[in-house]
Amino acid sequence: MEKLVEIIKKTYDHKACLEIANTGCSNGACNRHNYQADTLLLYMSYSDEIIKYTSERLGYSFLSNLARDFGSPLKDHKDQFSWQDVVSACPNKDDFKHALVWKFIELVAKEKSLEIT
């Protein structure tokens, strides 16, 4: 199976990646992945790659904080819980996954926008 990083880089040209990197997915820049149905399909197929790629660049604390943004009740004593615990307790998992895929796309777009064409 092809890596999602490569799929995203093929899906968006350099100009589109610049726009995604500068404005983010929430502003409609990633027009092929605007809807939650689209991003959830990507998450279902590529969750391991998405989590690995994102956490390598932003740290596992990003995943925990994102889950907290979407209602995970594990807010106190942050050092007592793994990122998996915090995500598991998140009541809005689809919203979390959607936002995580968007962050992944933004990171890949930034990477591609910095490549020499």
How does this model look, in words?
The protein is mainly alpha-helical and 117 residues long. The protein has helices spanning 4-11, 14-23, 36-58, 60-69, 83-88, 93-114. The model has no long low-confidence stretch (mean pLDDT 93). The longest helix has 23 residues, at 36-58. The protein is elongated, with a radius of gyration of 14 Å. The relative contact order is 0.21.
- Domain count, please report it: 1
Total DSSP helices: 6
Mean pLDDT: 93
Which structural class should the secondary elements be placed in? mainly alpha
Q: Share of helix among residues?
A: 55-70%
Rg, rounded, reads 14 Å
Poorly predicted spans: none
> What is the succession of H and E elements?
HHHHHH
Q: What is the subunit organization of this protein?
A: single chain
Shape: elongated
Largest sheet report: none
How many β-strands, per DSSP?
Answer: 0
